[in-house]
Amino acid sequence: MQDPQFYLVMAAAGLVALAMVTAGMLTAWRGWLALKQQQMALAGNHMPSDMPGPSPTQRIEIADLKERIKKLEAIAAGVDL
Length: 81
Fold this sequence. Notes:
The chain is mostly helical. It has 2 domains: 1-47; 51-81. The chain has 2 helices and no strands. It has helices spanning 4-46, 56-77. 0% of the residues are buried. Keywords: Membrane, Transmembrane, Transmembrane helix. The chain crosses the membrane at residues 6-29.
């Protein structure tokens, strides 16, 4: 049987290791968030705010595609239209 101090030292070492891993992961998370913020800022600079929306023809095509998707989903679900 091991000395009780051995278990105390192992528990302390485990906690220190866990703290180090947690700190590293937190640093990586913050770096990733900073990267995404930079990407969003750059993407926002490339798009003009007065950009026109889709044309009426494009809207009709999108509505038609949505309707076709609904019909296909109904067929897949076994619903008779």
